[in-house]
Amino acid sequence: NYHTTGAILPSGRRLSTALARYVGGNENGQRVLEVGPGTGAVTRHIAPKLGPNDRLDLVELNPSFAESLRMALVNDPVLRTIADRTRVLEMAVEQLPADVRYDVIVSGLPLNNFSVESVRSILDAFRVLLAPNGTLSFFGYIAIRRVKALVSGRDQRERLRGIGRTLGDFLDGNEIRRDWIWLNVPPAWVHHVRLS
């Protein structure tokens, strides 16, 4: 389903490592949220960085992926080590209760596949869920909106431009780092954001 699944292949090692950059390292513990973990490619890079006081919530809308993640927490040798500190929540990120705040949010959502309104709604959810001084990391494929716009009709071009403007406004003054992952298929960049 290319509306909710944005990749042909799971996230590569370099992309997964960049997305997990701000996970771990706090001896008091972190609350970590991964949004759209899919088959768990990024989760397997998050897991080794989690300390004993860290907690991980995986929010996955696709029922097949959610079930696969539940099974992986039992059977996968990497994920099994964090099973007691991990929850799989089968819902949209916008449905998460606003009373839990996260120190780190890692998103694998394919924002370019959504409507402008959906992207705004997801970004608003991130604003609510991110704890003060927390970090949000999410990725996009380099130049994909430009390439899609070249082969799309007018409505699709306008939607992609709207997403570009929405993300640009969100990143403006909030992006603390950008990682360029040239060897990913396709090449991607990871935005790291702290909201003011």
List the helices and strands and how they pair.
Blueprint: H1 13-19, E1 31-35, H2 43-46, E2 55-59, H3 63-75, E3 86-89, E4 102-107, H4 116-129, E5 130-141, H5 144-150, H6 154-171, E6 175-181, E7 188-193
Question: What percentage of the residues does DSSP assign to strands (E)?
Answer: 15-25%
**Global mean pLDDT:** 91
Low-confidence stretches: 1-9
Count of individual beta strands: 7
Element-by-element helix/strand order: HEHEHEEHEHHEE
Described by the principal axes of the CA atoms, the overall outline is globular
Structural class: alpha/beta
Number of helices: 6
Please outline the major beta sheet: 7 strands, mixed
Gap between N and C termini, in Å?
Answer: 35 Å
Give the oligomeric state: single chain
What radius of gyration results from the CA coordinates? 16 Å
Helix content: 25-40%
Strand order of the largest sheet: 3-2-1-4-5-7-6
